[in-house]
Amino acid sequence: MVKKQEGVKHMQSFSFYSPTKVIFGKGTELGTADEIKKFGGSRVLIVYGGGSVVKSGLLARIEQSLTSAGLAFTSLGGVKPNPRLFLAREGVQKGIDFGVDFVLAVGGGSVIDTAKGIAHGIANPGTDIWKFWLKEVEVTKSLPVGVVLTISAAGSETSDSAVLTDDETWTKRGLSTEFNRPKFVVMNPELTYTLPKYQIACGVVDIMMHTLDRYFTPDEGNAITDEIAEALLRVVIKNGQVVVENPTDYDAASELMWCGSLSHNGLTGLGAKKDFATHQLSHELSGRFDAAHGASLAALWGSWARYTYQEKPERFARFAKNVWSIETNDCKLAAQEAIDKTVAYFSSLGMPTSFSELGIGVQSEEVLQDLTDRCVFHGARTIGQFKVLNRSDVYEIYKLANH
């Protein structure tokens, strides 16, 4: 009989569901229409962002693909970063009027999240979609969504999450439901070649944060989960720098794109509580100031880490050793060095690490208090799991970043 060893951490229970079909490689966008038909689509709403998919000819190629396959379609453009509720509502009505049975997102996270909201709205024509995001109504049905990915960042193409911003109150909310899972994603790294460096860098931070917000958890014992998370972070750190400097490096762009999906499909946090405090903190920042999501995350992570690391310095020490190759037996010193290295990496990408670097300037006490109240829903919730943060904690983190 084998005796149980004292102090040994055991793998925690989990449920993993990641049904999105991934079609990866050069030229894969040309098969988009075939994938739509496989999932029962016949009347399609194409959702896209600014002019880049038009200028590059990608939208025209997608439309030609659908026409050749005998699929009817209509389009909705104009999605912006921090995707707006009003445009999603507009898309719902457009989809209902056209009799849409499939929604195709051509773009990155904001486009995909908008498409998810539209799909929920078309399937539930009597419900305002914002009620789903406010958790007043549960999503019980939706339309199928497909994705042609053009940005390595949000991971929304394989995640159960979607974020929308109410443009009237600048309230930003996230929604997690299995109905947010796209049916398929077409991933051709070449479609990311024309992105501005700032947008690429924002994406690198977003990818890292989707794993960091899972990795820093109070739970232990999931060895393979930790190893996957650490490997993904090392690969992103290495290749993110390459792609920012040379966006047309296919190999580096490929690694980054695949990491983006794996970072947010649930794999890097299995068996552990998700923290996501930095995401919650940044939602209020990007919602109020309309700042890029990745940049807002970079501006806050160092402050969050420095405020919380003493809750469990040995976790940060593991991060220091296995991600940054920092060798020291002093857990607190290792933690501090790892935080400094991570913040320095963000800076090396041209990302902000404070409010002033984000471009919003040093904020007044009134604004800090408002951000804090919004983040904790005026005292109705705490955030985080690595260290549970109350209103006072949230305020102190905003204050640390306010320089």
UniProtKB/TrEMBL annotation:
Organism of provenance: Propionispora vibrioides
- Tell me the ranges covered by the Fe-containing alcohol dehydrogenase-like C-terminal domain, including all copies: 201-400
What name does this protein carry? Uncharacterized protein
- PANTHER family, alphabetically? ALCOHOL DEHYDROGENASE YQHD
Q: Which InterPro entries match?
A: ADH_Fe/GldA (IPR001670), ADH_Fe_C (IPR056798), BDH-like (IPR044731)
Q: Where is the Alcohol dehydrogenase iron-type/glycerol dehydrogenase GldA domain?
A: 19-189
Q: What one GO molecular function would you report for this record?
A: butanol dehydrogenase (NAD+) activity
Q: Which SUPFAM superfamilies match?
A: Dehydroquinate synthase-like (SSF56796)
Query: Keyword set for this entry?
Result: Oxidoreductase
Keyword hit for GTP-binding: no
GO CC annotations, alphabetized: cytosol
